[in-house]
Amino acid sequence: MKLGERLKAVADMVPAGVTLADIGTDHAYLPIYLVEQRIICCAIAGDVHHGPYLSAKNAVAAVNLEQKISVRLGDGLAVLAPGEADVAVIAGIGGANIIDIMSSSPAVMATLKRIILQPMIAAALVRNWLQANRWQIIDEQLVQEEGRLYQIIAAEPGDSLPIDPVLCEIGPLLWQTRHPLLKQHIYELMSHLKGVLSAMEGSAAAINSAKYNEFVRKLRELEDKYACL
Ligand SMILES: C[S@@+](CC[C@H](N)C(=O)[O-])C[C@H]1O[C@@H](n2cnc3c(N)ncnc32)[C@H](O)[C@@H]1O
């Protein structure tokens, strides 16, 4: 199994020897890769939809790993008993859905030693949730694949110092380490916000809303950070 850049960066954050739960596994590429490479010995691969669940089951059977990778049909972390996995990956899903998955299973979350998240959108929401729920961000990565930038966040239980709101948008560790793709990342965040603001400018009510002012302030803060690079 050969992984693309995005899933390889996720795999690189999985510590050797853990029992992994890959939630929203789809094709099960990640657990298959990690077991084949002998980085981990066993995994649970969960998906809420029947098609991806079957595709994971077939992929695992095709490489004879049924004894090592348990493929389960179910919603989020509900496919796990507390303590069954050490590390959970939730990748390729929107930030709000990731938050729903984490919030819905507090007993399972309480037994995880690390979570690795790759939100497709709304990474700032995810960082805010982690901070509010006493998960400390311990690693962040940016990866470019087929012209798109992806953010990957690893967190472990623990308190962190409050994260500046603009760094919640950018990624506190991406900023701290001056990640090589940081400038492009902030540029994309600014472009997205400019698009949202220009759409809002079509309506007088929207321009006078608190949201509009919040987005203007956010854009200025991002521009300040960009100017520092
Ligand atoms: C785009 S795929 C990502 C697959 C893989 N994780 C990756 O990053 O390449 C998203 C998968 O998440 C699954 N999914 C979405 N919400 C879910 C949930 N609440 N619980 C489990 N799986 C979910 C979907 O069925 C889909 O197979």
Radius of gyration using CA atoms only: 19 Å
- Output the strand order for the largest sheet: 3-2-1-4-5-7-6
Bound molecules: S-adenosylmethionine
Main β sheet profile: 7 strands, mixed
- Count of folded domains: 2
Helix/strand order, N-terminal first:
HEHEHEEHHEHEEHHHHH
Instruction: Give me the CATH architecture of the largest domain, please.
Output: 3-Layer(aba) Sandwich
Mean pLDDT across all amino acids: 97
CATH homologous superfamily placement of the largest domain: Vaccinia Virus protein VP39
- Tally of DSSP helical segments: 11
Low-confidence stretches: none
Which CATH C-level class of the largest domain is it? Alpha Beta
Strand content: 15-25%
| Helix proportion range | 40-55%
Overall, the morphology is elongated
Q: How is the CATH topology of the largest domain named?
A: Rossmann fold
Please give the alpha-carbon distance between the first and last residues. Answer: 38 Å
Total beta strands: 7
**Derived structural class:** alpha/beta
Can you describe this structure?
This protein folds into two domains: 156 residues, Rossmann fold (3-Layer(aba) Sandwich), CATH 3.40.50; 45 residues, no CATH class. The chain is built from eleven helices and seven strands. A seven-stranded mixed β-sheet has the order 3-2-1-4-5-7-6, with helices on both faces. The chain starts with a helix and ends with a helix. The protein is of the alpha/beta class. The structure holds S-adenosylmethionine. The site of S-adenosylmethionine has 17 residues, from strand 2, strand 4 and helix 4.
